[in-house]
Amino acid sequence: MKNCEYQQIDLLALPTATPTPAPLHGGDTVQRREPRKARRKWEVFPGKNRFYCGGRIIVARQSGVLPLTLGLILITSGLFFTFDCPFLVKHLTCCIPVIGGVLFVFVIITLLQTSFTDPGILPRATQDEAADIEKQIDSNGSTSYRPPPRTKEVLINQQVVKLKYCFTCKMFRPPRTSHCSLCDNCVERFDHHCPWVGNCVGKRNYRFFYTFIVSLSFLTAFIFGCVTTHLALRAQGGKGLVFALQESPGSAVELVICFFSVWSILGLSGFHTYLVASNLTTNEDIKGSWSGKGGEGVTNPYSHRNIIINCCSVLCAPMPPSLIDRRGFLPEDESAQTGCAEIELPTLATKSEMNVCTQGTKDLLESAALSPLLSTSCPQGKPHSADSSFTAKPNTSPELPPQRPKAHPTVKTSTPRRTKTQSRKCKRAALHVPTPVYEDPLTPSSPEAGPESKTH
Amino acid sequence: MATEFHNLQELRHSASLANKVFIQRDYSEGTTCRFQTKFPSELESRIEQTLFEDTVKTLNNYYAEAEKIGGQSYVEGCLACFTAYLIFLCMETRYEKVLKKIAKYIQEQNEKIYAPRGLLLTDPIERGMRVVEISIYEDRGSSGSSSGSSSVSGSTTR
């Protein structure tokens, strides 16, 4: 290890990148002739996410039924504005398309924000952190190949809470954090994985999700009411419903869609309003974490005991930053080895721990700090879990960062497939644990039980 | 006593990383960002406890300020809601402003207090807000210093 440390420090002393001790596969020499292209961290992100617009947009790997959701909303609204609005404007008031338009815009914007926002993904632990935690755990003497699930108890507001160890992310999950196996990420304040929006719902996008379902329930109810009024007006004078439907066939489609969806969406909105008011997540509600079945005196330690304060803390709290630095650049020596990205990924990604986003002297020191310890893993292409302790820049905006002084021209042709393939291959190559078994309480594909299970 | 470095440049040139200490999160008050102020034993020989505790407490205060729910955050939240949260695309959020202050503070602490003692603080945002990582350096020039041991006290001589 000592040799490795000094070796790494020598590397750092050199201004240019030097070959790493890790074996490089064929094809790499070909790539070296290409000009060096700085790579961004989203390209080596280990979770099962896809990135677009150069890392600005993040979605789950499976988009679920997001196209269906969008399609239904667009079709229903389109039919509404085409068939019902003209009639209603003539016979009632011109406010109707205005209100409908506002609601429609709200729904679409919040839906897209829910789908494309980082839900609060926790970057995986760095190697050093993971080693430190292992040291603390092993000091308790577990030597089996597959250690039992590790838990740690903390006291939160006089309530005992168990923190579970995540084998994929190599860290003890903070309270209210859960690992989504569909996205393969730990997500803070994990609510559920919503296939309708094609993303997890967590700390950072819960307010978008809530606004989406509330405005969607208003929109659905509004369209339903307007269509009913429209058909009623057409059918009056003894003409009958069939005549009205023949005159305005689009309304029939809207009626069917709205009738079947308004109940589930209203139910979902009501359920989430209850969750917001009690500062609970869907995950906790389903598991019954705080419902008292664990014994008497078990209450929600996160609740402020006041509905207004709970609502404000969930919906009006300051927007937390994204902890995965998607658009940050990988360090220069990593970017140079972009050739055999799939194969080299373990090495590359290990080095991705090296902080690129510090400034001034801190920059240099960080590089000095991190490389020596990374070198201990370099010969074997270290566990993939160390790959993506992506560091967020302090000055990185959570989404769409418009101001980035050294941003390269946006790579519009982002390669989400490659990211996916890379992360899959990397995972297979480097994971010690063959099949991560998560004590993941919530099966993401059936995110919610209860009244809204129909909806999801 | 630990090796002294006069500035960060000297640290870079003559130091090798010996160990890292991780200050974990303190969840006793919920999920708000706070770090434990317990003084790690590895730092006992490197830095005074009061300095360390001051640093962590100041960081905790910064994070509390960033996450404070009060009048201003309500106004911002409601305004954001009315604009369908589009203002998040245009404006720098309060949290980001405080994160910049924190970065500056950490850099200043490193320059004034930690680097001269052969230590280096890492901004928690770079570790997913999970830990405050403190890197402990040894003077590369001093031979026989242990490179991988967890205890660094006594490894270098003045």
Automatic annotation (TrEMBL), chain B:
Residues 21-133 form the Golgin subfamily A member 7/ERF4 domain. Keywords: Membrane. The keyword Membrane applies. It is found in: Golgi apparatus membrane. One of its GO terms (cellular component) is palmitoyltransferase complex. Residues 139-158 are annotated as: Disordered. Its main location: Golgi. Pfam families: Erf4. Signal peptide: none annotated. Residues 142-158 have a biased composition (Low complexity). GO terms for biological process: protein targeting to membrane. It is a lipid-anchor. PANTHER family: GOLGI AUTOANTIGEN, GOLGIN SUBFAMILY A, 7, GOLGIN SUBFAMILY A MEMBER 7B. Belongs to the ERF4 family. This is Golgin subfamily A member 7B-like. It comes from Gouania willdenowi.
